[in-house]
Amino acid sequence: xxxxxxxxxxxxxxxxxxxxxxxxxxxxxxxxxxxxxxxxxxxxxxxxxxxxxxxxxxxxxxxxxxxxxxxxxxxxxxxxxxxxxxxxxxxxxxxxxxxxxxxxxxxxxxxxxxxxxxxxxxxxxxxxxxxxxxxxxxxxxxxxxxxxxxxxxxxxxxxxxxxxxxxxxxxxxxxxxxxxxxxxxxxxxxxxxxxxxxxxxxxxxxx
Length: 207
Ligand code: SF4
Ligand code: SF4
Ligand code: FES
Prior knowledge:
Blueprint: E1 7-12, E2 15-20, H1 25-31, E3 51-55, E4 62-66, E5 77-80, H2 102-109, H3 121-125, H4 132-140, H5 144-150, H6 159-163, H7 170-183, H8 189-200
Parallel strand pairs: 1-5
Antiparallel strand pairs: 1-2, 3-4, 3-5
Helix pairs in contact: 4-5, 4-7, 5-7
């Protein structure tokens, strides 16, 4: 960071901060003296723990973003979001004995999925631009492979879960879709061979 680098003024959680324009929101907090805690986030846009609500100076629109991926800007207002409530949708994959049961079990585990209002709240809230509503719709129709593909980039930030007025937990619908797709498909041969090598104790590790 050079002495001449442009600086911007913004507020984070209601506190005014001045920081170089090249910093992310998280880096701006550190720059302002907030403690740096290790091992609680990825800083690479994949863990979803740095979700923030943002309003830019030139817009009245509020967007949901990831603080480690968002560069600070003049007049920006940022609020970190904390969601204390975990999903109430729980299950064990081992409790589903074969792929014929998947759809029925899905509707037992996620009974709300059929009640999607198509309000689009989940799509708007997703910082990864995922077609969340479409994913829920596909899963409700039993099209788990297609639904799971839509959620590949999901970082489980829970923003869609919080936005959903029907308590569907759309991100967990996506996770379920990805899990059952992998669980009930034949594993790739290279993975099977590697596990077999491990099982036999034949894996050579070069140090
Ligand atoms: S699908 Fe939901 S949990 Fe996943 S990244 Fe988008 S908002 Fe976050
Ligand atoms: S927020 Fe919930 S009800 Fe609205 S479209 Fe998304 S899944 Fe459907
Ligand atoms: S810290 Fe992991 S997504 Fe930002």
